[in-house]
Design a protein that fits this description.
Helix 3 (84-91) links the parallel strand 3 (74-77) and strand 4. This protein has helices at residues 36-39, 55-65, 84-91, 105-115, 136-143, 171-179, 196-205; strands at residues 6-13, 16-24, 74-77, 95-100, 122-125, 154-160, 180-190, 209-217, 226-235. It is an alpha/beta fold and 239 residues long. The protein has a single domain (6-235), classed as 3-Layer(aba) Sandwich (Rossmann fold). It is 26% helix and 28% strand. It is globular and about 45 Å long. The strands form two sheets. The chain has a seven-stranded mixed β-sheet with strand order 5-4-3-6-7-9-8, sandwiched between helices.
Length: 239
């Protein structure tokens, strides 16, 4: 037994066929026998969050499903968790790389690719903040070469529910800037967290202009009410 319980569900995403997704059973699951999560700063309380489906992630997946696939465009999903948006883009033929810092994110991605009969896709270890230069970066590559760290630059960077910390030093915006092309677009789906304004200032310093799209979903049968924003950042060019 892996030490945690899972479930499988058909997940609807507007504009595309349902995906069969394996996720954690609930927020009570936890196992870290080798301390891999602890080494990257993931507490027992935060450990299960990667393996659950969140409304913001569903909105992100639906937005990517509605975007025409562009030849030559490289897409990076950061803090992907179960990578629902990445799976949608990959199935539609987009060049998508999923990334997260959780030790099990790659395993869950591989299983969900298998469940949906999809070809392998790219996954990279990606973490911003003070732990991004931790010695485990080299450790991660040595232990699992296929799961190397995020590298290169992308035309589109996407993520959902990422603004859960104050980020006084602007580390998330700096990480995005490090991996964004000089002309790039960034989508962040945010459920109206209080750190949005600070993130906006940090993105402005990196040369990005913002266009906000309000998101609302009424409660229905088995569906919770949702209010949030899609933060669309664009940068035309940077010397």
């Amino acid at each position: 037994m892996p030490g945690y319980l899972t479930k499988q569900e058909d997940i609807p995403v507007a504009g595309v066929a349902n995906l069969l997704i394996r996720s954690l059973l609930d927020r009570q699951q936890f196992t870290d026998p080798d301390g891999a999560a602890a080494r990257v700063g993931i507490s027992s309380a935060a450990w299960p969050l990667f393996g659950l489906l969140w409304p913001s992630g569903t909105f992100l997946a639906a937005r990517l499903a509605a975007r025409p696939v562009r030849a030559g465009e490289r897409i990076l999903e950061i803090g992907c968790g179960l990578a629902l948006a990445s799976l949608v883009g990959h199935r539609r033929g987009a060049d998508v790389t999923a990334s997260d810092c959780h030790p099990l994110a790659a395993d869950f991605l591989q299983e969900n690719l298998r469940l949906n009969g999809l070809a392998p896709m790219k996954y990279r270890h990606g973490r911003w903040g003070s732990a991004s230069d931790w010695a485990g970066g080299a450790h991660w590559q040595a232990q699992a070469p296929a799961q190397c760290v995020v590298a290169g630059r992308y035309e589109l960077i996407i993520g959902s529910d990422l603004l859960y910390e104050r980020d006084e030093r602007g580390e998330l915006a700096a990480f995005i800037d490090c991996h964004a092309m000089p002309a790039a677009e960034v989508w962040i789906i945010d459920p109206n967290r209080g750190n949005r304004a600070r993130f906006q200032r940090n993105m402005e310093r990196q040369g990005f202009a913002l266009n906000e799209v309000r998101l609302r979903q009424a409660a229905g049968a088995g569906i919770a009410a949702y209010q949030g924003r899609c933060l669309v950042y664009r940068r035309d060019c940077r010397p």
